[in-house]
Amino acid sequence: MEGPSLEINLPDTHEEGKLYVVDSLNNLNKLNVCPDGSQYALDEEEDTGGTGENTSGNKTRNQCLFFVTFILTLIVSLALVSFVIFLIIQTRNKMDQISSRLISEKKNIEELKKMNNMILKHLNQSGIKE
Questions:
Q1: Whether 42 contacts 34, CB under 8 Å
Q2: Staple partner for 38: which of 22, 30, 34, 93, CB 3.0–4.6 Å?
Q3: How many angstroms separate the CA atoms of 51 and 45, rounded?
Q4: How far apart are the first and last CA of the chain?
Q5: At a CB cut-off of 8 Å and minimum separation 6, what does 51 contact?
Q6: CB distance 47 to 37 below 8 Å
Q7: Nearest alpha-carbon partner for 58 in 38, 73, 42, 44
Q8: What are phi and psi of 116, to 5 degrees?
Q9: pLDDT tens digits, residue range 28-87?
Q10: CB–CB of 44/57 below 8 Å?
Q11: pTM for this predicted structure
Protein backbone atom coordinates (compact mmCIF):
# COMPACT_ATOMS: atom_id res chain seq x y z
CA MET A 1 0.00 0.00 0.00
CA GLU A 2 1.43 3.22 -1.09
CA GLY A 3 0.19 6.51 0.33
CA PRO A 4 -0.55 9.43 -1.95
CA SER A 5 2.47 11.49 -2.73
CA LEU A 6 2.59 14.91 -1.12
CA GLU A 7 4.93 16.30 -3.70
CA ILE A 8 3.44 18.19 -6.58
CA ASN A 9 5.57 18.07 -9.64
CA LEU A 10 4.96 21.09 -11.80
CA PRO A 11 6.45 20.54 -15.17
CA ASP A 12 6.98 24.22 -15.80
CA THR A 13 7.62 27.30 -13.63
CA HIS A 14 5.17 29.08 -15.86
CA GLU A 15 2.40 27.54 -13.72
CA GLU A 16 3.91 29.09 -10.57
CA GLY A 17 3.87 32.47 -12.28
CA LYS A 18 0.19 32.06 -13.08
CA LEU A 19 -0.56 31.22 -9.45
CA TYR A 20 1.35 34.28 -8.29
CA VAL A 21 -0.58 36.50 -10.70
CA VAL A 22 -3.91 35.05 -9.57
CA ASP A 23 -2.96 35.52 -5.91
CA SER A 24 -1.92 39.12 -6.60
CA LEU A 25 -5.20 39.80 -8.39
CA ASN A 26 -7.14 38.36 -5.45
CA ASN A 27 -5.26 40.63 -3.03
CA LEU A 28 -5.93 43.62 -5.27
CA ASN A 29 -9.61 42.69 -5.43
CA LYS A 30 -9.75 42.53 -1.63
CA LEU A 31 -8.23 46.01 -1.38
CA ASN A 32 -10.67 47.48 -3.90
CA VAL A 33 -13.84 45.74 -2.75
CA CYS A 34 -13.52 45.68 1.02
CA PRO A 35 -13.87 48.84 3.12
CA ASP A 36 -11.02 49.63 5.49
CA GLY A 37 -12.55 47.98 8.55
CA SER A 38 -13.38 44.70 6.89
CA GLN A 39 -9.92 44.45 5.32
CA TYR A 40 -8.44 44.16 8.79
CA ALA A 41 -10.88 41.38 9.57
CA LEU A 42 -9.82 39.55 6.41
CA ASP A 43 -6.16 40.03 7.28
CA GLU A 44 -6.78 38.60 10.76
CA GLU A 45 -8.49 35.58 9.22
CA GLU A 46 -5.53 35.02 6.95
CA ASP A 47 -3.13 35.37 9.88
CA THR A 48 -5.02 32.78 11.92
CA GLY A 49 -5.24 30.43 8.98
CA GLY A 50 -8.82 31.30 8.06
CA THR A 51 -10.29 29.62 11.12
CA GLY A 52 -11.93 32.83 12.30
CA GLU A 53 -10.15 32.82 15.65
CA ASN A 54 -9.77 36.27 17.19
CA THR A 55 -7.04 37.07 19.61
CA SER A 56 -8.84 38.04 22.78
CA GLY A 57 -5.70 39.68 24.13
CA ASN A 58 -5.70 42.27 21.36
CA LYS A 59 -9.41 42.92 21.76
CA THR A 60 -9.06 43.35 25.51
CA ARG A 61 -6.05 45.62 25.08
CA ASN A 62 -7.87 47.70 22.48
CA GLN A 63 -10.94 48.01 24.70
CA CYS A 64 -8.79 48.97 27.67
CA LEU A 65 -6.97 51.55 25.58
CA PHE A 66 -10.30 52.91 24.34
CA PHE A 67 -11.70 53.25 27.87
CA VAL A 68 -8.53 54.89 29.19
CA THR A 69 -8.58 57.35 26.30
CA PHE A 70 -12.29 57.96 26.85
CA ILE A 71 -11.80 58.61 30.58
CA LEU A 72 -8.86 60.94 29.92
CA THR A 73 -10.94 62.82 27.38
CA LEU A 74 -13.75 63.18 29.89
CA ILE A 75 -11.34 64.46 32.55
CA VAL A 76 -9.82 67.01 30.18
CA SER A 77 -13.30 68.09 29.06
CA LEU A 78 -14.42 68.48 32.67
CA ALA A 79 -11.32 70.55 33.45
CA LEU A 80 -11.95 72.81 30.46
CA VAL A 81 -15.62 73.27 31.34
CA SER A 82 -14.69 74.08 34.94
CA PHE A 83 -12.16 76.64 33.75
CA VAL A 84 -14.71 78.27 31.46
CA ILE A 85 -17.26 78.46 34.29
CA PHE A 86 -14.59 80.00 36.54
CA LEU A 87 -13.82 82.60 33.87
CA ILE A 88 -17.51 83.41 33.45
CA ILE A 89 -17.92 83.93 37.20
CA GLN A 90 -14.79 86.10 37.36
CA THR A 91 -15.99 88.17 34.41
CA ARG A 92 -19.40 88.63 36.03
CA ASN A 93 -17.76 89.81 39.26
CA LYS A 94 -15.57 92.29 37.36
CA MET A 95 -18.58 93.56 35.42
CA ASP A 96 -20.49 94.07 38.68
CA GLN A 97 -17.56 96.05 40.09
CA ILE A 98 -17.30 98.18 36.96
CA SER A 99 -21.04 98.84 36.87
CA SER A 100 -21.06 99.86 40.56
CA ARG A 101 -18.12 102.23 39.87
CA LEU A 102 -19.98 103.70 36.91
CA ILE A 103 -23.06 104.26 39.02
CA SER A 104 -21.05 106.00 41.74
CA GLU A 105 -19.23 108.12 39.14
CA LYS A 106 -22.57 109.04 37.59
CA LYS A 107 -23.77 110.24 40.98
CA ASN A 108 -20.55 112.24 41.42
CA ILE A 109 -20.96 113.84 37.98
CA GLU A 110 -24.57 114.80 38.76
CA GLU A 111 -23.46 116.40 42.04
CA LEU A 112 -20.71 118.29 40.21
CA LYS A 113 -23.26 119.54 37.65
CA LYS A 114 -25.52 120.76 40.46
CA MET A 115 -22.58 122.53 42.13
CA ASN A 116 -21.56 124.07 38.78
CA ASN A 117 -25.09 125.35 38.20
CA MET A 118 -25.18 126.80 41.72
CA ILE A 119 -21.82 128.55 41.18
CA LEU A 120 -22.96 129.92 37.81
CA LYS A 121 -26.20 131.21 39.38
CA HIS A 122 -24.27 132.81 42.20
CA LEU A 123 -21.81 134.43 39.75
CA ASN A 124 -24.65 135.64 37.54
CA GLN A 125 -26.50 137.13 40.53
CA SER A 126 -23.41 138.80 41.94
CA GLY A 127 -22.43 140.14 38.50
CA ILE A 128 -25.82 141.71 37.93
CA LYS A 129 -25.89 143.52 41.26
CA GLU A 130 -22.52 145.17 40.76
A1: yes
A2: 34
A3: 7
A4: 152
A5: 45
A6: no
A7: 44
A8: -65, -45
A9: 667 665 555 555 555 555 555 544 445 677 888 899 999 999 999 999 999 999 999 999
A10: no
A11: 0.42
